[in-house]
Specification:
Helix 6 packs parallel to helix 7, helix 8 packs antiparallel against helix 10 and helix 12 runs parallel beside helix 15. The chain folds into three domains: about 60 residues, Sandwich (Immunoglobulin-like), CATH 2.60.40; about 400 residues, Glycosidases (TIM Barrel, Alpha-Beta Barrel), CATH 3.20.20.80; about 80 residues, Immunoglobulin-like, CATH 2.60.40.1180. It is elongated. The protein is built from 15 helices and 26 strands. It is found in: Cytoplasm. This is Malto-oligosyltrehalose trehalohydrolase.
């Protein structure tokens, strides 16, 4: 078997065996004459054999490209033979257009917190009408439980979840139910504990700074190899684990002054792999820039990602539902229904407008003639937007079921690709709080202090003593979904509501029309109602609270029938005016 490693600063590299083979002598590695900085060695090895690299006689270090770290980020790597896995279900892929995503955290989706336990719950999602599961990061991180964004080995799979074979079993089970699988990957930083990449080479650079420290080296000396490292990792997930797409965390933090940009190189490589495999593959970026170039085609100067999260839609919908106005919600809260109407019809709210949160103009307008609406993701809740709240409270903690139903209707009937956060479909009451499992006491305390500073800066209410401790195991336990809830009320009715809306989305072509110019919105800011029109389909929502009166909403169209209604079915009167009670929503169509 061929072992290779990039270590340009080393004068000597040895392959050292560990585990059952620890008694074998080290294998000196030789410089690769064709690739500067690379070392290689041929040695007999089999799946599961454990090994490490020693640079200039130093301590054993895990392989940066290890697919498995059975003892965690600081332990040896293990050989993984991807060809040994027996896939049961052939899979030709599911494309992004027409998709409905479901964000899922393996460690809290079930009490067991494993791939196998999560796979046993996939039938629930297939029956609901979900098309793709979006897994939060699964790369190794210290300890057992965490969100995954502190991962330190971008080629490997967290062992407590089930390791590489566990992920493959999950993907295979999903494909057997017709579900695609997307993986959230983090290229913009590595976690603060267990990160050994700097010992191998210039994987980071001080040329740019990020909230996590030195930036990943995408444009300084040595960046060709660093680019290749992350490109190879991305392609491995799609090829070796048969994933259908990747969600790229915080791409605005990928500082790269080279041409073409790393994201353009990545999208070109993924498109090439899709052509070779004969199945659709896609990239979804999380971007804070509101930059149309993120999803614009490479040939027109864009980065070529296939979609991006749209936090503007979330912020507008959130302020309309809750009335919150702190932090980045301030601009949206001034006229939330107007903000919601703008995002539903134009994509971005900040499209060059002034952002008080940023202290200047932000974003640029999308070209609606050339940007299919599915390139933006719409959501009422995500791991970030819930978990960055002081108490990790979901919308269901403070909103009546009628407003949750209205939010679901706008997300699932929007022109964009909809996404739900796990448990949202039944109005889960379990919070989603930030939790970590750092073994370094100083780092653990730094994380606690950092969260307290963030909460104070965002002006979250409550005493700091009430804010959850990320290091307390009880914090993770509180976040585990309660699977007894869906059979209780109002959870069962909310679940049926989501199932009805998803059935409509899959059956009515107007709801997956990719042309954003076919979406119209009217609203009354003071009366608190909004009417969304998607071709012949109308979605009327009254955001008013229970103590307010019904509102008249003019609904254009003939021969309309109720496709879905909360709390009850209502048709417009003969004059075309719908009397809409507070906390209600109705979906009408021909």
């Amino acid at each position: 078997m061929l072992f290779e490693v990039w270590a340009p600063r080393a004068g000597r590299v040895d392959l050292q065996w560990a585990g059952d083979r620890a008694g074998r002598p080290p294998v000196p590695m030789e410089r690769d004459g064709d690739r500067a900085g690379w070392w290689r060695a041929e040695a007999p090895a089999a799946d599961g054999d454990r090994y490490a690299f020693r640079l200039d006689g130093g301590p054993p270090l895990p392989d940066p490209r290890a697919a498995r770290l059975p003892e965690g980020p600081d332990g040896p790597a293990a050989v993984v033979d991807h060809d040994r896995f027996g896939w049961r279900h052939p899979w030709s892929g599911r494309p992004l257009p027409g998709a409905v995503l479901y964000e899922l955290h393996v460690g809290t989706y079930t009490p067991e917190g494993t791939f196998d336990a999560a796979a046993a719950r996939l039938r629930h999602l297939a029956d609901l009408g979900i098309t793709h599961v979006e897994l939060m990061p699964v790369c190794p991180f210290p300890g057992t439980h965490g969100w995954g964004y502190d991962g330190v080995a971008p080629w490997a799979v967290h062992e407590p979840y089930g390791g590489p074979d566990g992920l493959k079993r999950f993907v295979d089970a999903a494909h057997g139910l017709g579900l695609g699988v997307i993986l959230d990957v983090v290229h913009n930083h590595l976690g603060p504990s267990g990160n050994h990449l700097p010992e191998f080479g210039p994987y980071f650079t001080d040329t740019h700074r990020t909230p996590w420290g030195a930036a990943v080296n995408l444009d300084a000396p040595g960046s060709d190899e660093v680019r290749g490292y992350f490109l190879g990792s991305a392609l491995s997930w799609l090829r070796d684990y048969r994933l259908d797409g990747l969600r790229l965390d915080a791409v605005h933090a990928l500082h790269d002054d080279r041409t073409p940009h790393f994201l353009a190189k990545l999208s070109a490589a993924v498109d090439g792999l899709a052509a070779r495999l004969g199945r659709p593959l896609f990239l979804i970026g999380e971007s804070d820039l509101n930059d149309p170039r993120t999803t614009a085609p490479r040939e027109s100067g864009g980065q070529g990602l296939h979609a991006q999260w749209n936090d503007d839609f979330h912020h507008a919908l959130h302020t309309a539902l809750t009335g919150e106005s702190q932090g980045y919600y301030a601009d949206f809260a001034r006229a939330p229904l107007a903000a919601l109407a703008k995002t539903l019809t134009g994509g971005f709210f900040h499209d060059g407008t002034y952002s008080s949160f940023r202290g200047g103009p932000h974003g640029a307008p999308l070209d609606l003639r050339t940007t299919p609406a599915y390139r933006l993701l719409a959501y009422a809740q995500t791991h970030d937007q819930i978990g960055n709240r002081a108490l990790g409270d979901r919308l269901a903690a403070s909103l009546p079921a009628g407003l949750l139903a209205g939010a679901a209707a706008l997300v699932l009937c929007s022109p964009f690709t909809p996404m739900l956060f796990m448990g949202e479909e039944w109005g889960a009451t379990t919070p989603w709080q930030y939790f970590t499992d750092h073994t370094d006491p100083e780092l653990a305390e730094a994380v606690r202090a950092g969260r307290r500073r963030e909460f104070a800066a965002h002006e979250w209410a409550g005493d700091a003593g009430e804010w959850p401790d990320p290091q307390d195991p009880a914090t993770r336990d509180r976040c585990v979904l309660d699977w007894s809830e869906p059979v209780l009320e109002p959870h069962g009715t909310l679940l049926a509501w989501h199932r009805t809306l998803l059935t409509l989305r899959h059956e009515l072509p107007a709801l997956t029309d990719p042309d954003p110019r076919h979406t119209e919105v009217t609203f009354d800011e003071d009366a608190r109602w909004l009417l969304l029109r998607r071709g012949p389909v109308r979605v009327a929502v009254n955001f008013g609270r229970a103590a307010t009166a019904s509102v008249p909403v003019g609904v254009p169209g003939r021969d309309l029938q109720v496709l879905a209604g909360w709390p009850e079915a209502r048709l417009p009167h003969a004059d075309g005016v719908l009397r809409l009670p507070p906390e209600s929503v109705v979906v009408l169509g021909p």
